[in-house]
Amino acid sequence: MYGIYLASKHIANTHEPDPGPLDWFGFLLSASGAALLLMGLTLIDGALTTRANALTMCVAGAVLLVLYVPYARRKERPVLDLSFLKIPTYHASVVGGSLFRIGLGAVPFLLPLALQEGLGMTAFHSGLITCASALGGAVSRSTATHTLRRFGFRTVLMYNAAFAGLAIAAYGVFHPGMATWAIWLIVLVGGIFPALQFTSLNSMIYADISPRDAGRATSLGSVVQQMSLGLGVTVAGLVLHISHWLQGHQTMVWSDFWPAFVVVGLCSFASIPITRKLPPGAGDEVARGKRA
Fold it and tell me: Which pick of 9, 59, 114, 285 has the fewest CB atoms within 10 Å?
């Protein structure tokens, strides 16, 4: 409730004077494609349906999303305007950020499961440890503005992507018998770098977007963000399933989990070549507080 109050007080209720009609065909094309693709990837392990059905969903979803691209280019007001991706800061935040968010989205699913199934902790004990990540994130967000002003978006996003990837992959060093305080400390530090990356990406995404276009830019950014977070859970689950199958264990053990942490951690590194293309002064006005 307090958040609603602050939003209504400090955020202006701006809107386009003439938003135009909703692009229903584009909405159905993009929404169906995204839903089928994510659903197919989620079901690819064959537990709830055959792998053939899951693969069919993936192919159908991918085809619909590919068909949406030329449609959006021809449409005057598409529901998801891909032309914003020509803007370097927006492109880096959406495309590069989506690769990082795959790893970020996997952690809330993978870490508690690993602590409980892999290390035999209770749900309460696991929850106390995972809370350390939120504490680390709070510390990181409190210093994010100073960090961005000091080093700039390009430098922070490049180097911190590596730190964030290593922080996520570091969860793979846990093992049965490891001291609880050591696990808690690693999770605490592991919350710092991903939170800084998440904050930086969300701050830079509208750096070069005009207030008039902010609404349409938000639509595309939000969809890609949610898809990448959901894809993170799917990728983590798929790698975990493959690891468990290859090692031939009857039940989940810790050695099944560490490959999943490594893979989703590496996803963060994949964003570095994209953010590296940013000009050195990208987003400086936002970092210095000159734009809302």
Answer: 9
Cβ distance 205 to 90 under 8 Å?
yes
184: number of Cβ within 10 Å? 17
What DSSP designation does 250 have? Answer: S
Residue 126 forms part of a structural domain = yes
Q: What is the extent of the structural domain holding 44?
A: 1-80
Say how far apart CA 66 and CA 276 lie, in whole Å: 27
Burial of 109 from C-beta contacts in 10 A (0-12 / 13-18 / 19+) = middle
| Domain boundary pick from 80, 111, 132 | 80
CB count within 10 Å of CB 194 equals 26
Examine the pLDDT at 130 and tell me if it is beyond 70: yes
Amino acid at 269: F
Say yes or no: 37 and 93 in one domain: no
Is 44 part of a structural domain of the chain?
yes
pLDDT digit string, tens, across residues 80-127: 888 888 888 888 888 888 888 888 888 888 899 889 988 888 888 888
Token pair for 67: 């068909």
- For residues 115, 119, 125, 126, the Cα torsion angle rounded to the nearest 10 degrees is 0
DSSP alpha helix (H) spans, 115-248: 123-151, 153-169, 180-190, 192-204, 214-247
The total of other beta-carbon atoms located within 10 Å of residue 163's CB is: 18
